[in-house]
Amino acid sequence: MKVTRAAAGVLSAALILLSTGATGATAAAPDETAKTSIGAPAATTTHRGGSADQSLGALARRHNLRIGTAVDMNALAADQTYRDRTASEFSAVTAENVMKWAELEPERGTYNWGPADELVAFARANGQRVHGHTLLWHNQQPTWLTQGVESGDIEPAELRALLRKHIFDTVRHFKGKVWHWDVVNEVIDDNANLRDTFWLRELGPSYIADSFRWAHQADPKVKLYLNDYNVEGITAKTDAYYELVKDLQEQRVPVHGFGVQGHLGTQYGFWPALNVAENMARFADLGLEISVTEADVRMPMPTDVYKLQSQAQGYNTLLQGCLLTPRCVMFTVWGFTDKYSWVPGFFTDEGAANLLDENFAAKPAYDAVRATLLLGRAR
Ligand code: XIL
């Protein structure tokens, strides 16, 4: 293992945590030496206790893992606490919305790069990598596109040219600034079939291979991902992804990563971490890297202590699965505070899906994730 100075700090913090039992004492350690001696102040259970950086991003460094969050650009502009925490806690960011097609090209031929560029600049200023999300998805597409296809004004040849242009323009615009792209998002449905979208209907299954090839031509260095939900365990759906990857590889299509979104719910239970790891490993064995791209764990409202503990377990199954997979390079949460979660707007009477509550206070899930990062054997 390469021990950086920051990682060494984290290791000593971990030793303190273990030797003191993390009592929650809050006195700040005067220097690095004091922190490693017996009886030195404990690492705290609060954010960034002591002088060492205790953020999730810093704690994950020893695992060679980036911890990311989806970023809501409106909250980033309006809410200083949100902005500060986004900057200090994470080592990667994903645009929650502003890199989706509808946002980038609201009118045909007129690009709106501003908000996405702002996020890229924010990430750069804070030493964060950017996970690009997403080049092709059946949701949040521009109205001119969906209406054009539905009305028959846009025919297959033109549709294919539009997709090619969208991918080239977008990947080129962010060339050198994006770590990975979700090239196609959610292209297999829960019955393990290629999702019935106008892409499939109009262009046939080759739109997937084409999308990867175009993205690779536009930026040969950026890593290219398949991304989906309900892909934690070994199921018919992940079997279908496994076959899709093999098929793409046989056609020499550049595909580099498998993104496990990880939108979980306490009412459904969770795959054990070992099963998550087993599934990730089979994709890693195909030569792919793995990322958890959109972790959140929602619950039927209102919250109670059992649900919050179960939520902590849910986050941990994803994180532990990732840590058990040497090629898992990123663990990204889909927002970090309940204040701005997408969940209540999409799932009736569900919510509280994030690591922090709406007042930015740590929930059991936050402490669980921290503890796992501290305890986990460095990979
Ligand atoms: C969600 C955003 O969080 C919402 O703000 C938006 O209104 C809809 O999309 N899977 C994905 C994400 O890949 O892009 C979705 O994000 C959540 C589900």
Distance between the termini: 7 Å
The CATH topology of the largest domain corresponds to: TIM Barrel
Q: What is the level-2 CATH architecture name of the largest domain?
A: Alpha-Beta Barrel
Helix coverage percent = 40-55%
Strand content: 15-25%
Mean pLDDT over the residues: 90
Unreliable stretches covering 5 or more consecutive residues:
1-49
Give the CATH level 1 class of the largest domain: Alpha Beta
Number of strands: 10
Radius of gyration: 21 Å
- Given helix and strand content, the structural type is alpha/beta
Number of domain modules: 2
Largest sheet: 8 strands, parallel, barrel
- In the sheet with the most strands, the strands line up as 1-2-3-4-5-6-8-9
Q: What is the H level of CATH, i.e. the homologous superfamily of the largest domain?
A: Glycosidases
- The count of helical stretches stands at 16
Bound molecules: (3S,4R)-3-hydroxy-2-oxopiperidin-4-yl beta-D-xylopyranoside
Shape: globular
**H-E order:** HHHEHHEHHEHHEHHEHEEHEHEHEH
